[in-house]
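Each record in this resource describes a single protein on a pair of labelled lines. An example record follows, reproduced without changes.
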Amino acid sequence: MSGDRPGRLRHAEPVMGTVVSFDVPDWVGPTLAEAVRWLHWVDATFSPYRDDSDVSRFGRGSLDRSLRDACARRARRSARNH
């Protein structure tokens, strides 16, 4: 994380096939690092463009059984509620 304005942190993070820019107060530093980690987790989990993402593996039918079962239970629960 870097910045060129006193009291501010400016950071550009390449993630999800784009760049996410931050301009935040410097006291946000640790939270900014958490936000960046979260963005990479979201990308790794939900990206349909990454072969190693959970969404891509789910689409290929290659997720482990426990996760497939959890998804099926959630889908049934959601269908009952709508």
User: Anything to note?
Assistant: The mean pLDDT is 88. Residues 12 and 18 are 10 Å apart (CA to CA). Strands lie at 8-15, 18-25.
